[in-house]
Amino acid sequence: MNTIQFIRKRAGERKKTIALPEYNDKRVVEAVKIIEREKIATAVLLTPDMMVREDKERYIQEYYELRKNKGSSLDDVRKLFEDPLYYAAMKTRDGGFDGFVAGASHTTADVARAAIYGVGIDETLNIAASCFVMTVPDCAYGENGTFVFADCGIIPDPNPRQLACISIKAAELINKVLDIPARVALLSYSTHGSAKGKMIDKVLEALKLVKEMAPDLLIDGEFQVDAALVPEVAQIKFPQSPVAGKANVLIFPDLNSGNIGYKIVERLAKARALGPLLLGFKKPCSDLSRGCSADDVADCVAVTAIRA
């Protein structure tokens, strides 16, 4: 059983209800057919006529209270709620849905905004970030070609604490979704002191913070990506590290490298990229690439259902 089959099977065992507010996107409509055929979850294709008037009005008032200090008027919020995306986020927060998936026809900023003010950020670490589950064919590295990459969609230049929190949340996801122990590599252009600089200092400070915040997490760095993945290179560059050559969670130092990295692997290695899976929220939710396929939507629903 490959990783995608494993994820879909695990999701089906949980029988969760996931909202899909992009009801007029053909790929999402097709994804619902896949989800129903394979019994991955109960997928609700949320159309405007399905929004309960009393609930919608309550959600509008609650959302307005959250946003009024940011300059949003009640009329502004009413216009937002013409889009089922915001209703889906608020109903997920209320427990009416177990999670939601959007992004086929919305930007990441739209989906993240709905999640932040609708679902709400988990106060445990108080951070919103994202990751991808990457499955690379014919690959011996990571977990037989399966990895988590983070952050590839939200925080442009994470500070050390943010980088530490991203690491912890990405590790939690690989444990939860794939039932795999996380081996986390903090990536850089340096391996174990081979270069010096402020960007490397940030990574090392993040490593120190993770060890304080989650002392049982298997994490190390700083790594160049070959030292993180390839056992033969790891033996040369960082032989004493318990993560070197074995990493299955790759933490990128900034959004430039994360976004470029996952798209290079997706296109050149013909990998599947599931996500962006949003991290740090009170309830699970997933963004989608606007270039996604129906299968991508179905798989993000499966991951969201497992996390619920």
Q: Can you give a write-up of this model?
A:
There is one protein chain. The chain has helices at residues 3-14, 26-38, 53-67, 74-80, 84-94, 108-119, 160-178, 198-213, 225-229, 231-237, 255-268, 294-307, and strands at residues 17-20, 42-45, 99-101, 129-135, 146-150, 184-187, 219-223, 249-251, 272-279, 285-286. The protein is globular, with a radius of gyration of 20 Å. The mean pLDDT is 95. The relative contact order is 0.18. It has 12 helices and 10 strands. It has 2 domains: 1-120 and 281-308, 3-Layer(aba) Sandwich (Rossmann fold), CATH 3.40.50.10950; 125-277, 3-Layer(aba) Sandwich (Rossmann fold), CATH 3.40.50. The protein is 47% helix and 15% strand. The strands form 2 sheets. Strands 7-6-8-5-4-9 form a 6-stranded mixed beta sheet, with helices on both faces. It has a 4-stranded parallel beta sheet with strand order 2-1-3-10, with helices on both faces. With 308 residues, the protein is an alpha/beta fold.
Structure summary, number of beta strands: 10
Alpha carbon gap, first and last residue: 23 Å
For the largest sheet, list the strands in their spatial order: 7-6-8-5-4-9
| CATH architecture call of the largest domain | 3-Layer(aba) Sandwich
Short synopsis of the structure:
The protein has about 300 residues and is α/β, with parallel strands linked by helices. The chain has helices spanning about 5-15, 25-40, 55-65, 75-80, 85-95, 110-120, 160-180, 200-215, 225-230, 230-235, 255-270, 295-305; strands at about 15-20, 40-45, 100, 130-135, 145-150, 185, 220-225, 250, 270-280, 285. Helix 7 crosses helix 8 (about 200-215).
